[in-house]
Amino acid sequence: MKYNYKVTNSIQGIYFRTFAPDRTLVAKEPAMHQFLKDKPTSVYFTITYTDEYNDEWTTAVTTIDYTSFCLAATTPATGGICLSTPTTGFKSKSTGETNQMQPTRETLQRLSEHVNDTLLALPTKAIPKSYVWSAANPLDVVCADHDKSTLDNDLRGDVKLCLKDPKMYLKGRTFQQYPWTDGTGKSKYVNSLDFRLDLKITGNVDFTNKQINFDGTDTEVFGLALFVKLPGPGVNAPLQVRYWYQPESKLGDKDVRYTHIDGTSNPGEFTDSLFLKQDLVVIQNLVASREWNADDGDNKMEFSPDKVSALPYCSDRGICDFESGICNCFSGYTGLRCDTQNAVTYSY
């Protein structure tokens, strides 16, 4: 009854960062090596889900590709151009936006579906229901010689064509979300009560109207994000992403390789500020950002911010045996948390 007019599922964001340092700080080769030594080409990661009993369940491995490189500017430009960003791809030579965006769309669909499948495949149905969608902004290179990229799926090659322009910059192309929109600019799945996450949240990875100028001011950029809806009865513990990779990159025209990297998202904590740390992967609780709107109906419901650990034992409809962890439910109630009514009670 307490949560009858509240939405108790929760949504968490998994953000993969784009790195673009100030060009003056990577002007020489040693500084380029310093930047590239922990930047990936292919990142392998798992997601660990912690249930309400503090049992941990880890998914199968998923892979996300990165584009990482450093190039020295040519006269009259100075400094260096270093970049590490999730690989989304773009077909500049194709016609029609759908064809041009095909590599990005394929990447988003693959990641979303695979992560969702691995969450649902956890043992004992640890997550009986989940839903994963994604968003990304493929990058476009702009310089004096051309106002958009000219190569297919070759961000490094497009940057290389603009190295002599001191004002060369990157900008976001058409913002992409999976599942695809229904023609109105909204996904009929995401834009519904079950999955409510207003599009302003995905703005954390939407820099359509922003630029990466390689001047040290544009590091607050995420190249790709996954949004995971988890079942109630409350806000789940933060998902934990464990990742590993062999840093392999391009320094100029040379292939470079560095020591193996293992990492993890901040364990047991949500990130209050996405840009507080320069971590490769950041996890954020998005419940506070969800909003009720007209599509949801007249009877407004709240999105509950209560954590699973803060909910009453046995739903206040039973007594908990703390040794076994089992609820002894009162008459008329059943279920793991005594949250299912199995009889109708009348009073006269």
Description:
The chain has 348 residues and is mostly beta strands. The protein has 2 domains: 289 residues, no CATH class; 30 residues, Laminin (Ribbon), CATH 2.10.25. The chain is 11% helix and 31% strand. The strands form 6 sheets. Strands 3, 4, 5, 6, 13, 14, 15 and 16 form an 8-stranded mixed β-sheet that branches. A hairpin with a 4-residue loop joins strand 19 and strand 20. The longest helix has 19 residues. The two termini are 21 Å apart. The mean pLDDT is 85.
Explain briefly what this protein structure is.
The protein is mainly β. The protein folds into two domains: about 10-295, no CATH class; about 310-340, Laminin, CATH 2.10.25.
Quick tags:
348 residues, mainly beta, Laminin, 2 domains, 5-stranded antiparallel β-sheet, 4 helices, 22 strands, 11% helix
Number of domains: 2
Q: Count the beta strands.
A: 22
Low-confidence stretches: none
User: Beta-strand percentage?
Assistant: 25-35%
Largest sheet: 8 strands, mixed
The run of helices and strands is: EEHEEEEHHEEHEEEEEEEEEEEEEE
Topology of this protein?
Blueprint: E1 6-7, E2 10-18, H1 29-36, E3 42-50, E4 56-58, E5 62-72, E6 80-86, H2 97-100, H3 102-120, E7 131-136, E8 139-142, H4 155-160, E9 169-172, E10 176-178, E11 211-212, E12 221-230, E13 240-245, E14 248-251, E15 254-257, E16 261-264, E17 281-285, E18 302-303, E19 318-321, E20 326-329, E21 333-334, E22 340-341
Parallel strand pairs: 1-18, 5-14
Antiparallel strand pairs: 2-12, 2-17, 3-4, 3-5, 3-13, 5-6, 7-10, 7-12, 8-9, 9-11, 13-16, 14-15, 19-20, 21-22
